[in-house]
Write a structure and sequence with these properties.
Helices cover 14% and strands 34% of the residues. The chain is of the alpha+beta class. Strand 3 and strand 4 form a beta hairpin.
């Protein structure tokens, strides 16, 4: 599950002026959410069921391949300590946190590959 990577205190207050400055995609109920700081923003979590390929070394030096079913979370987020918004893609074992520009490039390349 996605949790924002933010150090420092998070407060729980009745309301926050940040509510007015929330981006359109933010799904956080500021002031009442226990895991997200009041000045951080996070989209809804989109979970994708996926098959992941895992490679591990075998005792003889070859590689053992296995396919594992996993849920992958995809979340747009921004915290007040950084200027950029990010797209998180990952699960408990593997994570990518891409800038919006990098996510757009990845989207473009995946689109081309899937059309072939």
């Amino acid at each position: 599950m996605f949790l924002p990577f933010r150090e420092g205190p998070m407060s729980l207050v009745e309301s926050s002026p940040v509510d007015l400055a929330c981006p359109e995609w933010c799904a956080v109920n500021h002031g009442t959410h226990e895991l997200v700081a009041d000045d951080d923003h996070q989209s809804d979590i989109h979970t994708v069921a996926a098959l992941l390929r895992h490679l591990a070394p075998a005792p003889d030096g070859s590689l053992i391949q296995r396919t594992v079913a996993s849920d992958i979370d995809v979340v747009r987020h921004h915290d007040a300590t950084h200027d950029q918004e990010w797209i998180f893609i990952g699960n408990d074992e593997q994570q990518l946190d891409l800038s919006l520009e990098s996510a757009r490039h990845l989207h473009h390349v995946l689109g081309r590959l899937l059309r072939r």
